[in-house]
Amino acid sequence: MYGFQLNKNYTSNTTTDQIQSPVLVDELKTWLRLDSDDENDKLEMILKSATAQAIAYMQREILPRSFKLKLDRFPEQSNNLTGLNQIGVLKNWIDIPSKNLLSVESFTINGDAFNDYTLDLEGARINSDSFVYSENYVIDYTAGYTDIDAVPDAIKMGIILLSACIYEQTGECDASSILNKSGAKMLFNQFRTFSGGF
Length: 198
Prior knowledge:
This protein is α+β, with helices and mostly antiparallel strands.
């Protein structure tokens, strides 16, 4: 039985890849009008922090990272259309939580390779009419723009603005408002994605 997309109550999405910024230290130093190399390590940390905030806000990967998505129960439980009972509905798609999907390296169900699917790279979704009830879906995939040159200039500029704000207000940054205060939020909004459904 196929139905509406369900909430992800039993998933894990992990990576061991470190976040890399699409903005170089020298680019940030130019914006800040810094000539000395004394703070290069600090600036590198700030750029990574700003990039992490950008990823979290946009819900979109920037430079490529590899992930392992585990679905410990598929399908998951969801309210039926009356909202009275909990039912399992086998849907014919899986949303990849990390957007900018580049590729799927492997897909197994109960340890067996599964290849009967199509990829929607733009929508970061795996589609198939052959999904089965299982407690062990594992998907290895890569998400992000292909390289630094492919990252939109607006995202890079947002990271520069965010990094500059962090640098200039070290120790006084309010995480809840810095996206607005720096002007980065306005630049990131056009790339922000949302996941969800019924």
